[in-house]
Predict the structure.
Amino acid sequence: MPGRSATIKEVAEAAEVSVGTVSNVLNRPNVVSDETRLRVLDAIDRLGFVRNAGASLLRGGRARTIGLITLDIRNPFFTELARGVEDAVRELGYLLILCNADEDRAQEKRYLEVLEEQRVNGVLISPVNERDNSLQWLRDRGTAVVLLGRERRNFCSVRVDDVSGGELAADHLLDLGHRRLAFVTAPLAIPQYHERLTGVRRALARRGLSDDACDVVEVGSLGNAVEGRAASDILVDNHPEVTGVVCGNDLLALGLIAGLVRRGTRVPDDISVVGYDDIELAQQSPLPLTTIRQPKQELGRIATNLLIDEGQRGAAHAHQQVVFQPDLVVRDTTSRLRPVARRRAGRR
């Protein structure tokens, strides 16, 4: 119909359903049978119907959008997680608003306020501080919230068992004969890194080794490749006895390896290195990285489904704490400890 958009009533007549059914297809497609939903979508397409989102918001509704607030979008872990969220959001007929808190609490709070102003259906967040009152404030206003990588009472959450991941990484190095380890990490105030160190120490304890068998090298604030490279100088200059390294994430590991090579230390002949996350760069780097795999896209998909369910069902929604188990992926940066370690300090 040239000059105007079709109405929801005209779509209902064309699809031979009620106006309420059309509304359900647009807002709660999960309650409509596949056959009916496809018939309504076909009518929408033929008539060129465009929903009036503004009118819905004026009636106190919420937009068919969700927000995703990441700690640091420069880290490929969050980029790949966001892809899983986007895929799930698109399948469900929603749009995604991506925000980068840059590990800044004030910036995170501002994004939460903006997303609430936009009347988003819900927010997925890897919070700077999971105890922040802003999250409960958002929930009190009727916005669904799901935590990524964190847990909090009465909130849905999706995370990986990072203690188990740290254990896997350390066990791999210990199985290869390494007995002097290091843990290279971003600030341990970030819970995920602290839990990974806990896992490393648990693996040592099972072998009768003390915490002193693992030196902790805490660098920077973001856990990126530049900070990993800086850690290589600390290892070579101050911890020459270390033969196996667990890194808090893959970017730290890749930067560490680049720095070790620059210093004349061979990986894995002199030092074995294990990363964490299994980002795409881990397998595509010149020396493919042994690492701990997190199911990033699956994390995003499950979190999105929980968020949409909470937004649609409200008080009837049952909060869930979903915990995935990580996997060890063995590639080329680890090897068995040689009887005589041939370590070289190298030149700067």
Q: What stands out?
A: Residues 341-348 have pLDDT under 50 and may be disordered. Residues 25 and 34 are 10 Å apart (CA to CA).
